[in-house]
Amino acid sequence: RLRKWQERIRTKDAGERNLQFALSEIDRMASALGVPRSVREVASVIYRRALKEDLIRGRSIEGVATSALYAACRKEGIPRSLEEISEVSRVERKEIGRTYRYISQELGLEMRPVDPKKYVPRFCSELELSEEVQTKANEIIEKTAEEGLLSGKSPTGYAAAAIYAASLLCNEKKTQREVADVAQVTEVTIRNRYQEQIEAMGIHG
Amino acid sequence: MTDPKDTINIENVVASTGIGQELDLQSVAMDLEGADYDPEQFPGLVYRTQNPKSAALIFRSGKIVCTGAKSTDDVHESLRIVFDKLRELQIQVNEDPEIVVQNIVTSADLGRNLNLNAIAIGLGLENIEYEPEQFPGLVYRLDEPEVVALLFGSGKLVITGGKRPVDAEHAVDKIVSRLEDLGLLE
DNA sequence: AGATTACTTTGAAAAGC
DNA sequence: GCTTTAAAAAGTAATCT
């Protein structure tokens, strides 16, 4: 009677506290990543939906909150890589990726693969590259992706290679190391993607 | 044009069986050369056969899992070797225990490069998983046969989850016809 | 700049935590 | 859920020469 009632209050409070914790975590991570408020709101909605659909059972609140933020960034067209997301979360990259795939499937988010071009403005501005380089990088991505070169390749590495190539073509050279650092990929990946892209573009580097 | 079905290759067969007798894995581990047994880490004892190459997981209950074989014949041959090894240790093993194939992993080649982005959208984002940041393959789950296919940009694929070799053939046929219908093959 | 090794994904069984 | 086993696909990564 009274006991059941108290238990319900306790459960409700615990659930409320957990939700508050998740939302504050989303806020904290979003701030650390510097993404706009709209993204945090989309992430909150995704998190609440996951909660409503009981997808958090067997998973950590932090993991679902982080995945919701990752999904929200993509949905809003300003993707952060799993590498970048994991730097502001206490959940490891592999777990974020798994949880993201799970909630994405269960909630039917129907997320499209990340377009490498979405990384161009942010990476280029971190490298202080001109608008001309950005346009050239986008061109390279567009053309080579049309030829099927993008299949199976990571969007960050693909964007990094195109930016590296564009910086050379526009005489604003950045080293592979510099581009690799902002894109969080290795020089080897940039080298491999770069070779394929310039070959497909008919450019001789 | 080679029929993609002709490119199917069985890469791994997983099967389970049992000798119908409980085992003292500690003593089996002592007497069986090359046996790996670490109950703290895993309850099964690992025994590898060279010809055919496979790994058998032997449990206290007498149940055995065999994996790594390249055909169902190899599974039977590998398990025959395991049964004989156990008999050498004076362990009673049923005449010929039933061997059940649990999973077959195959690879195949569609012979054409694939635009995974277009395929993801064409097959329907709700039916597939394609996260190139995490894995280069597109994951496609079929209902009939009930298998999972991993499609790669090269046109090569992996089919797993099937219990009969024909499951892979049917899966390849379905995948080819769906991609053709969508105009995404070629 | 290679070469090697290793890790990511899929599937299934076993017994136990 | 995890642990272990084997194998393929192709991309990415760490480490060594």
TrEMBL record, chain B:
Sequence repeats lie at residues 10-86. The keyword Repeat applies. PROSITE patterns: TFIID (PS00351). It comes from the Archaea. Coiled coil: none annotated. It holds the Pfam family TBP. Keywords: DNA-binding, Repeat, Transcription, Transcription regulation. Signal peptide: none annotated. The keyword Lyase does not apply. One of its GO terms (biological process) is DNA-templated transcription initiation. InterPro entries: TBP, TBP_archaea, TBP_CS, TBP_dom_sf. One of its GO terms (molecular function) is DNA binding. Belongs to the TBP family. General factor that plays a role in the activation of archaeal genes transcribed by RNA polymerase. Binds specifically to the TATA box promoter element which lies close to the position of transcription initiation. This is TATA-box-binding protein. It comes from Halovivax asiaticus JCM 14624. The gene is tbp.
